[in-house]
Amino acid sequence: MSFKPETPFPVGKYLVSPLSRLTDAGDYSASISLRSGRGMATHDRVFRLVPRFASHHAALRYAAREGRALALQHGVA
């Protein structure tokens, strides 16, 4: 599968959104949003990941890989 790391992508019934932000220490943290459902029944879970990264792009790549693995691990695909 080919995609831009910052672009949300579907895995089974989830939409995986990799996220990254600059920390106060000057490095980047990675997070994942896993969204399911539609309309009023939408459910969004956000996971903050422990590793820190030197670049925004590296944090997004890691979040994308971990988000896909998390969705697959829970049998949603």
Describe this protein's structure.
- This protein is an alpha+beta fold and 77 residues long.
- It has one domain (9-73).
- Helices cover 23% and strands 42% of the residues.
- It is built from 1 helix and 4 strands.
- The chain has a 4-stranded antiparallel β-sheet, with helices on one face.
- 19% of the residues are buried.
Which class of secondary structure composition applies to the elements? alpha+beta
Give the overall shape. Answer: elongated
Residues in helices, as a percent range: 10-25%
Percent of residues in β-strands? 35-45%
* Largest sheet report: 4 strands, antiparallel
In short:
This protein is an alpha+beta fold.
List the helices and strands and how they pair.
Blueprint: E1 9-11, E2 14-22, E3 28-36, E4 43-53, H1 56-73
Antiparallel strand pairs: 1-2, 2-3, 3-4
Pick out its properties.
1 helix, 77 residues, four-stranded antiparallel sheet, 42% strand
